[in-house]
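Workshop exercise sheet. Pairs work together: one partner reads the sequence aloud, the other fills in the structure field after running the prediction. Swap roles for the next sheet.
Pair: D.N. / O.F.
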Amino acid sequence: MTYRLAACAEMLFLGLPFEERVRRIHERGFLVEIWDWSGKDLPALAATGAEFSSMTGYLRGDLTTDEGRAQLLATAEQSLAAAEILDCPRLNLHGTGLGEGGIPVVPREHVTGEDWVRAAETLRLVAELGAAAGRTFVLENLNLAVDHPGTPFARAADTLALVRGVDHPNLRLNLDLYHAQIGEGNLISLVTEALPWIGEIQVADVPGRCEPGTGEIRYEAVAAALRDLGYDGVIGMEAWASGDPDAALDAFAAAFG
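Structure field:
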């Protein structure tokens, strides 16, 4: 196995304080992923000794409107300062800012050609911020049918087109296979096509968004394909535990071990 495994502290060990969730995941030998950093005690998280894999890379904004672009770029700079405290290498972006429950703050499923151009321009500016700080921004695909209706640039095909078009080493994909299965399917072909542009892969099973083995995706086959392709990045379990969180981590490790 050449890739490394991470787990999302936002979705596991929910009965524990956040710092303790991070510590538990670290003690199990996984890298740690977090979402919004703004309400967290970052020095305390750093003191756990955990190695962080990714975190949210903005607080507000979008890729296309003047006000939204300004907000995204300003909060991306703030996020880079937070990432420095945790030494977190990747900062996650979406097609637009997400609110409560993952719903877009300004829903917009249909985008114009001008929107595509402006989104690419914004992402290039973000990538340049990342390069100056020695960190990489990753653009995550989402699904419209279940979790994130109204999100622009949501499909894996959209995020791949943007990242490929910008073609900057500090902008890569956060290829979420849970979202891709709902929106597009054909996961092995997807990872094969996207491989040169992947910064990180996230997984959960469908339906339910729980650990591998609880749904329809045969993640052992995906893992074998990734090994055959020589993928050497991070695979993060961004999933709820169907029962005991330690058992969910065991299932994840078994699927990708």
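Discussion prompt: Strands lie at 4-8, 31-33, 52-56, 90-93, 136-140, 171-176, 198-203, 234-237. What would you look at next?
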